Amino acid sequence: MSHEAHVAHHFDDAEQQYDACSLGMWIFLTTEILFFGALFTAYAMYRSEYPQAFAHASSHLSVWWGGFNTAVLLGSSLTMVLAHHAARTGHQENLVRNLWLTVLQGGGFLAVKAIEYSDKFAHHLYPGAGFEYHGADPGQAEIFFSLYFAMTGFHALHMVIGIAIVATLAVLAARGKFTPRSHLPVEMTGLYWHFVDIVWVFLYPLLYLIR
Amino acid sequence: MTPAAATDRRHYLNASYTAASWLFTVDHKRIGILYLLSVTFFFLLGGAAAVAFRLELLTPAGDLVTAETYNNLFTVHGVVMVFFFLIPAIPAVLGNFLVPLMIGAKDLAFPKLNLTSWWLFMIGGAITLGAVITGGVDTGWTFYTPYSSTYANTSVSTAIIGVFLTGFASILTGLNFIVTIHTMRAPGMTWFRLPLFIWAHYAASLIMVLGTPVVATVLVLVVLERSLGLGIFNPNLGGDPLLFQHLFWFYSHPAVYIMILPAMGVVTEIIAAFSGRRIFGYKFIAFSSLAIAGLGFLVWGHHMFVSGQSMYAGIIFSFLSFLVAIPSAVKVFNWTATLYKGQVRMLTPMVYAMGFMGLFTIGGLTGLFLAAMALDVHFHDTYFVVAHFHYIMVGGAVMAYLGGIHYWWPKITGKLYHEWWGRISAVVIFLGFNLTFFPQFLLGYLGMPRRYYAYPEEFQVLNVMSSAGASILGIGYLIPLVYLVWSLKYGPDAGPNPWGAKGLEWETYSPPPTLNFDTTPVVECEAYDYAAGEMAPELPGTQGHGSSTSEEAGSSEP
Ligand SMILES: [Cu+2]
Q1: Which of B171, B173, B237 to mutate to test the interface with A (most CBs of A within 10 A)?
Q2: ipTM over 0.90
Q3: Which of A75, B76, B159, B276 is 20 to 30 A away from residue A162, measured at CA?
Q4: CATH T-level fold of B21-530
């Protein structure tokens, strides 16, 4: 049987492998939606239960840093798409450059996140024994910041994993591992990257903007 | 096939003997074996904890163990049995082994993910065992907040991390099954030619994929609450412990269907094979699996009737819980109709399947008592609940698991076990089970609450009956362990199809070669294509090499 080198032994052909991998990736992203879904549910419940406390606590977040990060992430999604396009059309230099640009923007996002976190710590706006809050309903505000750290923390964890994968792809791409016929990892990673991006697109208005 | 060829032939078991060839295998059949050994270990561990607390409950006074130890014992029993035995048992052992074989594929779609799943399971199991050794866990398997998040001084976080990892093992298994069933079917294997075992696993996989992430998140939040001081479930801040219960049961009610749907799939295969008939109502059984999986996500609130959730929510949850009885009953009626006028052969797997039907029916009907809001006020947190879910999980899922292990044992190992011992053990387990758990319905009806290590004297007779039943049940579980292991060395060769059953898995060798089939099979007929009058020998142990089986073998000969 003629078996192309990039097709694993248990698949009949490249088409079957492609179908399996993309369906698998979409199912994985569905599990991710439910993973974050539990957090969004918790947020929605407390937001409707404690609207004033949440609005006031939310005013301690920097809309500008959050907006800047949103722009950075959208930019990284653009470079990820360009990377996939370059892989499909066989422009290896473009592929490598766009993958590194994606890594760079992902790193920038995390750096801004670190600035924001350290600002919250400096003002004792982190849940636990050290929490200090000068406003009404400090308990409810503490729940807000619990959700803030849990949701953005899980998102940041996904960013770290994504950056590691994209960087690996960039190294492999530089070695010429991807061809127009065989670049499934680039496409699958792209799906993951866009998903993580979309989660932020929901987090930003919910945590920073709604007052 | 001559006996000499059978021993010389390369198959998945003798492909290589090194430890690494097992621990890092990507062969779905070997991973199934790894899971078989692992879940057997966890079953014995969870069973040992049950033996200990059933001994304590022999007497009304709390005399054998302390209250704290008792709490640790029932928590270990619950956590280990639910997360490390029942949820992986049928899918990860039998499903792993059979899904590719039944659809005519060489392997699951993602063999390396499959191996990752087993490793995550083992690492999660080791961490949870670590929690048991270092101080134990006393929250019950439900980890209810705020006790688990704020007050418990035991190794709750460690146990949860272990459960969290094994949850990912479950997600990966479910994901693998869904993709495999969609993309890896052999030519001619249409959706409605799939064995119903596959439909059942497909439905269960949907739950694994859609439910598990939610419980994973909520358990991580409990760990973060304990370690970093997050306050999402903390009532002192205005947090709501009921939110935990909602999210926990959003997974943990459907989790019961992760156990019971594959069990129903196993029973369907056995009943068709040992009635020698095409299954009655194929599409009804197929779609009832999906219906159970779908409805299962909408009924979690029946665990919270007395928790303070809204009465209107309670009414809706109660109604939806009643609805689940419909697709469940559809299956039972279709099985019964398949048996009707069938040529029923009461071999070991069939004894288990019949036991399943009876016990599952009792478990299901008592579930209706609990789904009724007014009755549940009386039964909530009593032994009635304990008896109910053991009828489903042990009487149902474990009976089917053992039936399936027996049914496919010749395929997995290439050997036949001792038929007489098989039937004896199935009967012992059935009797022991009923003696253990039927008295618990009565105890619950009389008002004995669960999770207490001491009780009033008037409950003693029923408790002694239950403990006596547990010892019979324990012996019943040990017998197969002995004769199945014995069969590996001394059992006669099974041949490709000792039962005269239909299905692609019976058309290849026993044990199958590493890539399952010599050539990709082409499916040309419906599932369960049993022709009237065509029967396999009554006792395969004595006539395993009869003419009918070697003809079957001929079709897969190179
Ligand atoms: Cu339930």
Answers
A1: B237
A2: yes
A3: B159
A4: Cytochrome C Oxidase; Chain A (1.20.210)
